[in-house]
Amino acid sequence: MKYENLAEAELLLLVAADDGAAYEVLYNRYWQPLFLFAYKRLRNKDESKDAVQDVFINLWKRRNTLQLTASLRTYLFTAVRYELLTKIAQSRKTSGTEAMADMPLPVEAATIDIMNEKELQHALSVAVNHLPPKMKEIYLLSRQQHKTIAEIAQELDLSEQTVKNQLSKALLRLRTHLKEATVIPLLFPGIIYFLNI
């Protein structure tokens, strides 16, 4: 079997069945772009390699239970991003909570597994429904209909800057609402897309 020619979904099924060769293909396919992504932010080769390695180790450990709500590529880049945030957070000497306010806190994979995705989606839906009408409309056009800033601006007869501002405000409100509800959606790969520009 030519593993290199298999689609991502097929490789994931094989990995879930403990196929090391399929895992190696995924590793080789994504290691370099993930490393470059990490290095661009950390500017440290060893720490960047460690971050990517930790993500792949975690992927293998969770291979039998992992359920993706987005593509594997999205999942891996998101996971590396939070590994980087964890490393940055650990390197900071500040003890105040203000310096960490905008940085999602690391959570063990086991905790993420326990989280109920439906509950997170429900909490997000409730938060979206609390947005002002125009802000909600812009958010939904962006996240549910996957329209670009330019497309939304044209459809609603608004400037692109207005759309960007409204979307940024919407995302800020949603993050705040979910933090207050003691939910940690930024650590759940399936929800990250809805809360980031």
Q: What does this molecule look like?
A:
67% of the residues lie in helices and 0% in strands. The protein is mainly α and 197 residues long. The protein is globular. About 18% of the residues have low confidence. The N and C termini lie far apart (40 Å). It has ten helices and no strands. The chain folds into two domains: 106 residues, Orthogonal Bundle (Rna Polymerase Sigma Factor, Chain: A), CATH 1.10.1740.10; 81 residues, Winged helix-like DNA-binding domain superfamily/Winged helix DNA-binding domain (Arc Repressor Mutant, subunit A, Orthogonal Bundle). Keywords: Sigma factor, Transcription, Transcription regulation. It comes from Chitinophaga hostae. Belongs to the sigma-70 factor family. ECF subfamily. This is RNA polymerase sigma-70 factor.
Number of helices: 10
- CATH class of the largest domain, anyone? Mainly Alpha
Into which percentage range does the β-strand content fall? under 5%
Distance between the termini: 40 Å
CATH topology of the largest domain: Rna Polymerase Sigma Factor, Chain: A
Radius of gyration: 19 Å
Keywords: Sigma factor, Transcription, Transcription regulation
Family: Belongs to the sigma-70 factor family. ECF subfamily.
Protein name: RNA polymerase sigma-70 factor
Domain RNA polymerase sigma factor 70 region 4 type: 123-174
